Give the backbone structure.
Amino acid sequence: MNKTLVRALSCILLTAGFPALSWADSASLEALRQRLGKEHRLSKMLVSGEAIPLPERPVITLQFVSETVLGGVSGVNRYFGGYFLDDEGRVRWDQPGFATTRMAGPEELMALEYSFLTALQMTERMTFQGREVVLSIEGGSIQLVFAEIAPEW
């Protein structure tokens, strides 16, 4: 078989599984780009359909570092991880999961942090609503709502 044809077919097959190549102008990507570097505070957390009370301090945060990496404060520790967001708002998290610092804290904050990171890893959708970022699963039994933190001047 012709080497050029083999190369062309290989390129087509290799790129067929990468929708990122086709969503350069999507609304999701544009909304994400507008949030790069901005910090967001967790304002609502639903797990198994139940609201989880959030303490005033420490603040659980999310910040988009790039179009494929996010991080923040998870209660006691800092976390970061990779993700892929498609043009329909579906999010896939890199495996094996989020990396975190390894500090210990009060038991109730460690439990909240564990719940938050577990819920975050389970989310399947990311939507942008005004100044909020909503991560959820279909049916809404897990929902994490982050509000943009206004910069202090």
Residues 71 and 80 are 4 Å apart (CA to CA). The helical segments are 3-15, 27-35, 107-122. Residues 1-24 have pLDDT under 50 and may be disordered.
